[in-house]
């Protein structure tokens, strides 16, 4: 039977996202903002990756006792209106999952979070370099390093169909101190100690 462990055919490789890691995003927001009551989550209707991540985030917010507010990533105007409306009530934060529109609208999302003084968590380091508060997600270069081993094994005669599709194994927590200061947020010492990189 074909599966990620035994993909069959001539397929193998690396998945960019492992859905269970999505739980970390609302958990991190709650750690950064203990008074957190509401979480806006960007989503793409019809995108299986978005649906999978959203499902995990939804389950996590229930455990945290936090209200989940979906934001449909239709276009910049819709995103802007939805975030502005969400920000009218206090104690909110934003989760930006690993979906195509998050990359497409990166600058807009970071600007909206800053304008409305909302802590936001992102999936990748470039978001934090561009001014986002923090990110937690897979090391984007690690799959390339691991792919070299697969290439070597296939060239030595192993069948690609017998090599499992691998999920990410290395996750990075990146925080932006400048953005935290602008939002009036002090990172808890425990979070600060866990950070893989601090941008000042």
Number of domains: 1
Main-sheet strand order equals 2-1-3-4-5-6-7
Shape: globular
Q: Roughly what is the average pLDDT, rounded to an integer?
A: 86
How many beta-strand elements?
7
- Fraction of helical residues: 40-55%
CATH class: Alpha Beta
Structural class, judged by helices and strands? alpha/beta
User: Gap between N and C termini, in Å?
Assistant: 50 Å
- What radius of gyration results from the CA coordinates? 18 Å
Low-confidence stretches: none
How can the largest sheet be summarized? Answer: 7 strands, mixed
CATH topology: Rossmann fold
Which helices and strands, and how do they pair?
Elements: H1 24-32, E1 38-43, H2 48-64, E2 67-72, H3 76-86, E3 92-95, H4 100-104, H5 106-115, E4 120-122, H6 125-129, E5 134-138, H7 142-155, E6 171-176, H8 177-183, H9 189-194, E7 197-199
Helix pairs in contact: 1-2, 3-5
What would you say this structure looks like, in words?
With 200 residues, the protein is α/β, with parallel strands linked by helices. It is 42% helix and 16% strand. It has helices at 24-32, 48-64, 76-86, 100-104, 106-115, 125-129, 142-155, 177-183, 189-194; strands at residues 38-43, 67-72, 92-95, 120-122, 134-138, 171-176, 197-199. A 7-stranded mixed beta sheet has the order 2-1-3-4-5-6-7, sandwiched between helices. The model has no long low-confidence stretch (mean pLDDT 86).
